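Lecture notes, unit on protein representations.

Consider one protein chain, 232 amino acids long.
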Amino acid sequence: MTAPLTPPPPPHEHSAQGSWQPPAAGPQAPGSQHAEYAGHGWYGQDGPGMKTELREAAVIAVAVALGGVLLGVLWWWLAPHVPLVGDVVEKSWVVYLKDTEGEQAIGVDGTFTLLGLCFGAVSALVVFLLRRRGGVPLVVGLALGGLLGSLLAWRVGVWLGPAEDVIAHAREVGRGVTFTAPLKLGAKGALLAWPLAALVLHLGLMALFGPRDPEPEFGAGPYPGPPTADGR
C-alpha cells in the first residue's frame, strides 16, 4: 500500500503570501538623461528668444544710426575748407581751385573716415557693455546702424556746409573772390569705416570678454549601459 500523494498548493497560494513588487528600475537610458539635460540647457540658460533679440537689434540699429547727426556736425566743423575762385571767361562763369596742389579735398575724406572709426569704436563698446551676451541679430543691427549713421552724417554735413551750387555762389561773392567749396565725400568707401570698425571691435570684445558657456555636468561614473532582460 502506498501513502496518499499530497496535493499541490493552489495557484493563488504563492501570491497570497506576499504582494507582487515591480522590478527595481535600472539605470536610465541615454535618451532620458539627454532629455533631462535638454530641459535645463547643455550650455547654460536659454536666450531671451528670437523675437526679443530682433527687437533689441532694431532698437540698437536706430539708436546707432541717430548718432550720425553728431558725426555730420563734427565733420562739417572739423573738415578742412577747400578754397574756390570764380571767374568770367567769354561771358561765362567758371569755378576752379585756388590752390591746385592743396590736399584739402583729401583731408575732407580723411576727417570723415577718422570720425567714422571713432564712432564705430564707441558704439561697439557701448553695445557690448549693455548687451554682453551678443548674438547674430545684435551684431547685424550694430553694423546696419553704423552704415545708416554714416549715410545720415554725410547728408547732414553736406546740408550744413556751403551751398552746392558753386556757380551761384561765385556770382554772389564776385569775380576773383575766394569762397569755400561745399562738403563733398570723394571716397565713398569712407561710409564703411563706422560699420566695419563697430563690427570688428564688437567681435573682438566678445571673443576676449564675452560670457562663456558652462561645461555640461555629467555623472561621477561611466554610463553602465542599458538594462538587460533580467533587470540587472
